[in-house]
Amino acid sequence: PHSQLIKRTFQTIPHDSASVQGDSVRVFQWNVLSQALGQNNDKFDCCPLEALEWKRRRCHMLEEIVRHNPDVICLQEVDHFDFLSRALATQSYSGLFVPKPDSPCVYIKDNNGPDGCAIFYKNNRFDLLEKHDKILQVWTVHSNQVTLLLILKDKCTGQELCVTTTHLKARKGALLSTLRNEQGKDLLQFISSYAGDRPTIICGDFNAEPTEPVYSTMCSCPDLPLDSAYKVSGLEPPYTSWKIRGGEGEVMHTIDYMFYSKNKLTVSSLLNMPIERDIGENRVPSMSYPSDHFSLVSDFYFNKISKDSE
Ligand code: NDP
Ligand code: CA
């Protein structure tokens, strides 16, 4: 059947094919929009109620994921992990989930449990070597945000990859921006302690525009030289989230990222953000897109020689 989802196109990133090896790894990043929050807290006044019904939304959610056939899937605001896990298992994915310690979802009537971060990987391509998770700390005190880290091993090449996801503290303000930066520092310390020499990809909803300190923190870690995948195309996209909320009005901003080891990996293609006309004047979520965040997809090649050892 004809897809009802907003159409998406890829852009190819020119690169030196002689300096990379093996098959590329397609990584998918998405804040799926928690069912409990989306229906009860977000006040998406311009979105028809039926678009937010779980029975409809879950189909679009799955379609948005599987239509891009990713090898690795990083998700945030997941409050239906069991559903996703069962559905994605039919497409050869295995997944892990870490809930937020005090998820706002559980205070909502008819909730489906806490929301949290999840990572799925194609189990016919990768073996899971290690799994670690952490409640992010701010000045040594636990916050309400978590991170999940997997070490994956390519079954064919033996190549290992560290994949991490997180969903940083939401909302505007100088103090919150500082708080996100502290979460970012703790995240980097956590990843550095497990990634070792492995190529690393960090996907998430950082709730911070590129001008926020946490973005610079992520791109200037001495132990872990990272770059933002979408930045490789020149600029970050003009938006990764575009919504209209009652009270708050229209919000269009870039807050979701895929950071990667710039010396060990090469970006070869990126999924473009949908154009304004296709998004529609009521923005998202909508009948043609199930979340207020757009998914990010990037293909990464492993470099033959790490650029830091040249
Ligand atoms: P965050 O500030 O990180 O936000 C939690 C979620 O709310 C995120 O998924 C975020 O989505 C979403 N969100 C952000 N802005 C808005 C908005 N304007 N309207 C609706 N939803 C929004 O919260 P914490 O995880 O730190 O948890 C604290 C929050 O949890 C409190 O603000 C409180 O509302 C709730 N809570 C309630 C309790 C209670 O009822 N007794 C107890 C504990 C927590 P995104 O990242 O996509 O922006
Ligand atoms: Ca949200």
* Major sheet: 7 strands, mixed
Query: What's the number of structural domains?
Result: 1
| CATH superfamily caption | Endonuclease/exonuclease/phosphatase
List the secondary-structure elements in sequence, H or E: EEHHHEHEEEEEHEHEEEEEHE
Question: Strand order across the biggest sheet?
Answer: 1-14-15-2-3-5-4
Structural class: alpha+beta
CATH class: Alpha Beta
Shape: globular
Observed structural traits:
310 residues, alpha+beta, Deoxyribonuclease I, Chain A, seven-stranded mixed β-sheet, six-stranded mixed β-sheet, 21% helix, globular, binds NADPH dihydro-nicotinamide-adenine-dinucleotide phosphate, binds calcium ion
Task: Give a written overview of the molecule.
The structure is a single chain. This protein is of the alpha+beta class. 21% of the residues lie in helices and 36% in strands. It has helices spanning 35-40, 49-52, 54-66, 81-89, 174-195, 213-218, 276-279, and strands spanning 10-12, 20-31, 72-78, 93-99, 116-122, 126-138, 141-154, 160-167, 200-205, 226-228, 241-245, 249-253, 256-261, 265-271, 296-303. The strands form three sheets. It has a seven-stranded mixed beta sheet, with helices on one face. Strands 6-7-8-9-13-10 form a six-stranded mixed beta sheet, covered by helices on one side. A two-stranded antiparallel sheet has the order 11-12. A hairpin with a 3-residue loop joins strand 11 (241-245) and strand 12. The N and C termini lie far apart (50 Å). Bound molecules: NADPH dihydro-nicotinamide-adenine-dinucleotide phosphate (NDP) and calcium ion. Calcium ion binds at residues 33, 37, 77.
